[in-house]
Amino acid sequence: MDFQAVLPLAVLVIGCIAYVFWPQKRVVAPVEKTRLDYLQERKGVVYDNLRDLNFEFRAGKFPEEDYARQRGDLEAEAAKVVTEMETLGG
Description:
The chain is an all-alpha fold. It is built from three helices and no strands. Helix 2 (about 35-60) packs antiparallel against helix 3 (about 65-90). The radius of gyration is 26 Å and the shape is elongated.
């Protein structure tokens, strides 16, 4: 291999490595989450879990007793989260 073929490849590799590992000057400050933000995320997770539970029950993956118990637990948690959100003004 001659020098003229290796040099552009070496420059390209060095440039790529520098681009990937060069330190960034701007660092984004972490966003402080409020209790209301946390509760909104939790509500979404609980509702997703309820939807998944209903789907899996209809698919025959859960017996009636387990489904009723888990659904009750999830609904109680959802009610608690929504109640706390209402007290916080959300």
